């Protein structure tokens, strides 16, 4: 079992970074092999260039896939489980993670397999996808206003979609009153091995 963590937060002073440290400790304790794509630390480019759009949008499959995207494809190829960890910003993931999907989910790789001449290998089906997001609002409030459902629909049904066999979303809500939720969040992260192996 090899886990790839796609981590998206700009600050080491953040609560989300604290969750990343807990997650890494738990995986080490469970002897689960992992690597991290830390999108801000890597300065991962998340704006699609005009040339990239011509491949993606106009489906000119002769245009090359950028090297940084190919590196992410290789990490995905090595993974049995991908964990996405990020803070909820305006009811979704930060724009940088959205840009990861825009660029890494290349046409002919993650979708649009029927369009071509296969110039690249298709993305393999990953056994497990886990989305972990920290949120200022409580889980109860996010459920009440329908945002928890919309985040699940967008992340699990669309972005992870059929590319993942099993999927879970863990909302670590209520960070606005962090002292009330820190312990229960930590207990959830400590049990992440159960989610990965299930
Ligand atoms: C730009 C921005 C937008 C945010 N939007 C939301 C939101 O839509 N819903 C929510 O529950 N919390 C929102 N928050 C709160 C974050 O989810 C919260 O700060 C995060 O879960 C934990 O904080 P951290 O930045 O210390 O990791 C937002 C925070 C920022 C900075």
Key phrases:
single chain; alpha/beta; 5-stranded parallel sheet; 5 strands; binds flavin mononucleotide
Question: What would you say this structure looks like, in words?
Answer:
The chain has 198 residues and is of the alpha/beta class. It has one domain (2-197): Rossmann fold. Helix content is 42%, strand content 19%. It is built from eight helices and five strands; from the N terminus they run E-H-E-H-H-E-H-E-H-H-E-H-H. The protein has a five-stranded parallel β-sheet, sandwiched between helices. Helix 1 packs parallel to helix 7 (178-190). The mean pLDDT is 94.
Overview in brief:
By secondary structure, the protein is α/β, with parallel strands linked by helices. It has one domain: Rossmann fold (3-Layer(aba) Sandwich). The protein contains 8 helices and 5 strands; from the N terminus they run βαβααβαβααβαα.
Strand content: 15-25%
Task: Spell the H/E element sequence.
Answer: EHEHHEHEHHEHH
Number of β-strand runs: 5
CATH architectural grouping: 3-Layer(aba) Sandwich
Q: How does the overall form come out from the CA principal axes?
A: globular
Q: What's the CATH topology label?
A: Rossmann fold
Coarse structural class: alpha/beta
Largest sheet: 5 strands, parallel
Could you say how many structural domains there are in total?
Answer: 1
User: What top-tier CATH class fits best?
Assistant: Alpha Beta
Physical arrangement of strands within the biggest beta sheet: 2-1-3-4-5
CATH superfamily: Flavodoxin domain
Question: Distance between the terminal alpha carbons, to the nearest Å?
Answer: 12 Å
Radius of gyration from the CA trace?
Answer: 17 Å
Helix content: 40-55%
Rounded mean pLDDT is 94
Uncertain regions spanning at least 5 consecutive residues = none
Give the names of the bound compounds. flavin mononucleotide
């Amino acid at each position: 079992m090899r886990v790839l963590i796609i981590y998206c937060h700009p600050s080491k002073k953040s609560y989300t970074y604290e969750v990343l440290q807990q997650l890494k400790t738990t995986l080490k304790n469970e002897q689960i092999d992992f690597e991290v794509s830390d999108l801000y630390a890597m300065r991962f480019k998340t704006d699609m260039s005009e040339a990239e759009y011509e491949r993606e949008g106009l489906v000119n499959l002769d245009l090359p896939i950028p090297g940084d995207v190919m590196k992410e494809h290789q990490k995905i190829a090595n993974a049995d489980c991908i964990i996405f960890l990020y803070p909820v910003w305006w009811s979704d993931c930060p724009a940088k993670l959205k840009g990861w999907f825009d660029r890494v989910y290349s046409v002919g790789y993650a979708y649009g397999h029927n369009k071509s001449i296969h110039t690249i290998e298709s993305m393999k089906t990953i056994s497990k996808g886990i989305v972990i997001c920290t949120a200022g609002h409580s889980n109860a409030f996010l459920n009440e206003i329908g945002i928890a459902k919309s985040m699940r629909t967008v992340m699990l049904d669309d972005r992870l979609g059929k590319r993942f066999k099993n999927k879970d979303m863990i909302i670590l809500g209520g960070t606005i009153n962090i002292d009330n939720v820190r312990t229960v969040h930590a207990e959830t992260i400590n049990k992440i091995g159960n989610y990965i192996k299930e």
